[in-house]
Specification:
This protein is α/β, with parallel strands linked by helices. The chain is built from five helices and ten strands. A hairpin with a 3-residue loop joins strand 9 and strand 10. The chain is globular and about 40 Å long.
Length: about 190
Amino acid sequence: MTATYTFDVFASLDGYADVTSGDWGGYWGKQGPELLDHRLGLYAAEQRMVFGANTYRAFVGLLASSEETVGDPWVTRMLGMPATVVSSTLQGPLDWPDATVVSGDAVDVVARLKKESDVPLRSHGSLSLNRALMAAGLVDRVQVTIFPVITGRTGDHLIFAGAADFDLELLESRTLDGRIQELVYRPTLHV
């Protein structure tokens, strides 16, 4: 059986995953109880996290900071899940309770994980890693949570910059806290 792989990402309406400056705060300051409860539910099921080196470093940095999102129960649950970090620059042991670093081509690593894993795979962030996995046809679901902000001047890390073209089949959609959109798609390479 092949494990399902979900590319999970937070976005501003204009497609940025992060901001370089400004006083937005975590979740662009737009989170509410419905979003936080929903995220906790997403991480209730057993699954394996998959990260690239940059996202892993960002999460470890977040843990060392005093940022408010670190204490959110869904983040705590995610940090307790087994994780695979795909990297040719990192070496273990890692500052993550149950993480292993695997070097090699990300496409090969994730293809093998999908074949061998007994649980679904999920990646939160890891933009360049997931763009490569999408192009290789390894991403089963793209889950985009869109926050009601436009970060034209402060936005950083365009989520799909440089990605291939994809057709998207909408699998699920929901509104959280009356203002946040979550869209789940099945991507298919556009030919």
